[in-house]
């Protein structure tokens, strides 16, 4: 399991970039080791701080294997960084990562927090018909990470999974729950310390009384 590309981007003006008219979605391979700070990678910008500026979204990872899957279906080459990920991985099941799982990469320690949810800027950037729907249905969203320990990362670094919570709820579970999968939503409720919005969503969506597992135990890493 390793990093094959570290990607950063700067914000630019673009008419297609939603209401802000600015985006840093065009991430390019850095070609050198990059410091990882608490807010994300050095030299990497986020134009929409309201929706992409939280510490839980400091770093975004996407798997080369998922790119290859998309290439077959889209009939076009997809370079590393095109989906705006900071870390392009190989040999790592990013979507199967457990929420709260920690990765040691180079000198940095990162924690899996949540999947990417596609937005209008991503749709316009890819310029593929029905892209938001297709990306959602494919269930290959990639993972956001928070920075636990700063350091530096570079292409070729090994990804070592150094901690994995026992609840077993994954990035894919989060993504499916967000898009109406009842079984996945019930799994989200088993994550100790999960955000209360999951209880609210379950109460509305499942139409049944909901008691979150782990209510009487100490909270673990937040699920997002």
Describe this structure in words.
There is one protein chain. The chain is α+β, with helices and mostly antiparallel strands and 224 residues long. It is 25% helix and 25% strand. It contains seven helices and 13 strands. It has helices at residues 49-52, 64-74, 120-126, 131-138, 171-178, 182-188, 197-206, and strands at residues 2-8, 12-13, 22-23, 28-29, 34-37, 40-41, 59-63, 87-90, 102-105, 108-115, 143-149, 151-153, 159-163. The protein has an eight-stranded mixed sheet. Strand 5 and strand 6 (40-41) form a beta hairpin. It is globular. Residues 212-224 have low confidence and may be disordered.
Write a brief structural summary.
The protein is an alpha+beta fold.
Number of helices: 7
| Beta-strand percentage range | 15-25%
Give the N-terminus to C-terminus distance in angstroms. Answer: 25 Å
Rg over CA atoms, rounded to whole Å, is 17 Å
What are the segments in which pLDDT stays under 50 over at least 5 consecutive residues? Answer: 212-224
Produce the secondary structure layout.
Layout: E1 2-8, E2 12-13, E3 22-23, E4 28-29, E5 34-37, E6 40-41, H1 49-52, E7 59-63, H2 64-74, E8 87-90, E9 102-105, E10 108-115, H3 120-126, H4 131-138, E11 143-149, E12 151-153, E13 159-163, H5 171-178, H6 182-188, H7 197-206
Parallel strand pairs: 7-8
Antiparallel strand pairs: 1-4, 1-8, 2-3, 5-6, 5-12, 7-11, 9-10, 9-13, 10-11
Helix pairs in contact: 5-6, 6-7
Question: What brief labels describe this structure?
Answer:
8-stranded mixed sheet; 224 residues; 13 strands; 25% strand; disordered C terminus; alpha+beta; 3-stranded antiparallel sheet
């Amino acid at each position: 399991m390793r990093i094959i590309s570290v990607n950063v981007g700067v914000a630019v003006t673009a008419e297609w970039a939603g209401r802000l008219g600015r985006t840093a979605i065009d991430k390019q391979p850095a070609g050198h080791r990059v410091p990882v700070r608490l807010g994300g990678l050095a030299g990497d910008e986020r134009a929409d701080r309201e929706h992409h500026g939280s510490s839980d979204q400091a770093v975004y990872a996407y798997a080369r294997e998922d790119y290859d899957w998309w290439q077959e279906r889209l009939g076009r080459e997809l370079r590393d960084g095109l989906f705006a990920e900071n870390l392009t991985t190989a040999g790592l099941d990013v979507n199967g990562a457990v929420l709260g799982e920690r990765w040691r990469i180079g000198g940095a320690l990162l924690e899996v927090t949540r999947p990417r949810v596609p937005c209008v800027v991503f749709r316009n950037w890819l310029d593929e018909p029905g892209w938001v729907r297709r990306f959602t249905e494919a269930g290959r969203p990639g993972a956001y990470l928070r920075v636990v320990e700063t350091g530096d990362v570079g292409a070729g670094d090994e990804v070592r999974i150094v901690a994995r919570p026992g609840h077993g709820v994954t990035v894919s579970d989060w993504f499916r729950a967000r898009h109406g999968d009842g079984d996945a939503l019930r799994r989200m409720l088993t994550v100790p310390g999960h955000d209360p919005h999951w209880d609210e969503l379950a109460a509305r969506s499942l139409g049944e009384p909901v008691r979150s597992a782990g209510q009487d135990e100490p909270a673990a890493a937040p699920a997002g």
